[in-house]
TrEMBL record:
HAMAP family: Cas1. Gene3D superfamilies: CRISPR-associated endonuclease Cas1, C-terminal domain, CRISPR-associated endonuclease Cas1, N-terminal domain. It is an enzyme of class 3 (hydrolase). Its EC number is 3.1.-.-. This is CRISPR-associated endonuclease Cas1. It holds the Pfam family Cas_Cas1. Belongs to the CRISPR-associated endonuclease Cas1 family. PANTHER family: CRISPR-ASSOCIATED ENDONUCLEASE CAS1 1. Mn(2+) binds at residue 235.
Length: 310
């Protein structure tokens, strides 16, 4: 594989995409961009756009794929050259490799990112968020990851560290918000509701890159099942791309009296949602997501170690 990813994403609505024999041209919001056609191995269209059949034909003829997604990143379908199985070698390698090394790196990067987030938040607030012994426990768990042999052990430590992280971060917020820990839907407090919204946005960005690299999003390493690989890959980057934004908004009081808790779930009003989406779009860094996906793809093909940035 090359040192740079070879998929190209067009997101939003209203782009006009066409091509010559050598160039792919994209006109979006009055700005024209051109790319050498051979450099686009996978074109990913997120949202609603206009694409000329000539561009479709030329991409397929050169062996490239075109994938389609709803605006939220939900995969809809893919066009491949007739008679080909593009990316089959990557997916075969994904299933053939033992999951332990990859799961270990996911758990390691996630725990390190969460430790840094707790310490950074404590520094900002001028207080120590850890109760006695908690920081030592988390650091010991980080050391223990190197020696855990079974997948069950890795998953148990990953879950324990995650539960501790959210409970510790809850101490940075007003108790009136009702956030104690991460919960499953339907959420009964506004912080969990905002976290889920942020994670959904991050999930959408990540699954586009995963499919762009021809990886199987349903074949994870630390997790198993539908979209498990995407869930694995977003874990280490949640803290910087979502959590910091959500907790900052919650501490600033921007959600006071702007949500309702019914017997079934917490409802955020439009003002909160709008205040959250704008900074999330800034904090979700597609370059880092692409870099992590590329690292995984290259490692699966034997082109280097697997390393996750956060």
């Amino acid at each position: 594989m090359t040192s740079e990813h070879s998929w190209h994403v067009v997101a939003g609505f209203g782009a006009h995409i066409k091509s010559t024999g050598t160039t792919l041209s994209i006109l979006y919001k009055g700005e024209q961009k051109e790319f050498p056609l051979p450099s686009v191995h996978h074109l990913l269209l997120v949202g609603g756009h206009n694409i000329h059949t000539s561009a479709v034909t030329r991409l397929l003829r050169q062996g490239s794929s075109i994938s389609f997604f709803d605006a939220d990143g939900t995969p809809v379908g893919m066009l491949n050259p007739f008679g080909s199985d593009v990316g089959a070698d990557v997916r075969k390698a994904q299933r053939a490799r033992m999951p332990h090394t990859f799961a270990q790196e996911i758990a390691r990067a996630t725990l390190k990112s969460r430790l840094l987030a707790i310490e950074r938040t404590g520094d900002q607030l001028g207080e120590n968020l850890f109760y006695e012994g908690e920081q030592e426990i988390l650091h010991n768990l980080l050391k223990d990851l190197e020696y855990l042999i079974t997948m069950d052990e890795l998953r148990r430590v990953h879950k324990l560290a995650g539960d501790m992280y959210y409970e510790i971060m809850a101490r940075s917020l007003s108790p009136e918000l009702g956030f104690r820990r991460r919960t499953k839907r339907p959420h009964q407090d506004p912080v969990n509701a905002m976290l889920s919204l942020g994670y959904a946005m991050l999930f959408g960005n990540t699954i586009v890159s995963v499919i762009g690299a021809y990886l199987d999003p349903d074949y994870g390493f630390l997790r198993e099942g539908e979209r498990s690989l995407v869930a694995d890959l977003i874990d280490p980057i949640k803290t910087t791309m979502v959590d910091e934004v959500v907790f900052s908004i919650a501490r600033a009081g921007l959600i006071d009296r702007r949500y309702e808790v019914s017997t079934k779930r917490c409802h955020l009003n439009e003002e909160v949602i709008d205040a959250l989406i704008a900074p999330l779009r800034e904090s979700i860094k597609q370059e880092l997501i692409d870099s992590n996906v590329l690292s995984l793809s290259q490692s699966l093909m034997g082109d280097g170690p697997f390393f996750l940035g956060y």
